[in-house]
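Sample A.
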Amino acid sequence: MDNLEVKIREAELADLELIMAFISQKAEFDGVPNLLKATADKLQQTLFVESPLVRVLLAEVAGTAVGFAIFYASYSSLLAQPCLWLDDLFVQSQFRRFGVGTALLKSLAQIAESTNCGRIEWTVNTGNTPGIAFYQKQGARILENIRVCRIDGSAMAQLANK
């Protein structure tokens, strides 16, 4: 198989179970299935509302979805511009290396350009060597001097109630 003909489209409510399946597959790929708290109901309440804060792109090959990207708007005070945050990018293993991930990122870049975004950002697991190589091939710079900070669960509740 060479590069496949990939169609990218925005997800719709009818894709809810498919999105849930992709999120589950990504959690398995990342080695954190125990952290998966998403449900179809929770996704519906956040993705398919009148003004959703998050958008989902689906990658299809021959009419079958084989990957997805979840993203949302962010902002850079340094640039004084909106940005896009790519929360998840996942392509089923048998469709990797055939242009599916590139097609998803290209669509995301087109959205960023059309909305005057200054950049697209995301995280990648340091152990995901193939993913890092893929992102670098697409022109991404891996910023080694920045760390993800996270407050969640009981720490968030404790901080909120100080």
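Sample B, a different protein:
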Amino acid sequence: MDTASLSALVDDEFAPTKTYLNTASCGLLPRRTLAAVTALAQTLASGRADGSGDFAVVEAVRDRFARLAGVGADRVAIGGSVSVHVGLIAASLPPGAEVLAPQGEFSSVVGPLAIREDLRMRYVPLDRIAESVGPDTALVALSSTQSADGRIAGLKAIRAAAADHGARTLIDATQSAGWLPMDAGEYDYTVTGGFKFLLCPRGTSFLTVTEAAQPALPPLYAGMGAAVDPWSSVYGPVERLSPTARRFDAPPAFLAYHGAERSLALLDEIGVETVHAHATGLAARLRAGLARLGHETVPGDSPIVAAPGLGDREPELARAGVVASNRAGNLRAAFHLYNTEADVDRVLNVLAG
């Protein structure tokens, strides 16, 4: 998509009232997404029979995410949060299994694993994950892009080390899906929250599972949606589970999924490569500007910029109409389609006093 077309589409879809640099916390909803959620809510309020939501829309969302993730739709399970998916994976591990994770990893990734006291959690620095995989490691769990500072993990080396030792891999793509090309089939499991760079309403999340890893997962959420024929499985226990990853679905929040279908359609229309070029270019501009002001940033090429020691400037930026975050002492700014060079310059002007 050329620059003029992208700019026109973004102007049609987004209307931020502030300089919004907080996509790593929550992405802005496109207008088409807001319209879809509103339409379903109005239908529900009117008492129409179809007001609860449409399973066909959920399947369309599954299909769209599958294409974005580079896998077949039969490998994708849907849900409401990353921690729900990780909890399912945690339940599949045998007592005493070792789980390797980065120090300071996001709680949704490690929390459902650590709560099992019969698992052995081992934490090492992010840049030592690959070398730390050992013969006792059952699962390597980490985010592809770190929430606190935007560092991108060395996934190729981690994947190779895990394969050498027979360990499974769990990658949280919440902070990368939507701007970083994704091949979920390279990992046993991926989990992705939809409400950040995928621009979906909160309440949408995705689990991908390889065919080899599927038999180990227990179908803990086996309601009617997990059945081969959902509408024949409304009452009583499900007798025949879906042979696909749909048997791992958690019940969908229809308002969120009706919106997600429009958000993922927009990203498909624009293309992940276009989002990548736009967002990382703005991040590079901010890193260069901060360097000119004498501030260090965490090195990297992601659209998430972290400036250590500047987290306490977040309230000052907020008073100036700039929405950013204080994460682990870092001033964190995250860029997406709706950001411009003027947004970068406004941050720099505030920080320069």
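Observation for Sample B: Residues 77 and 309 are 39 Å apart (CA to CA).
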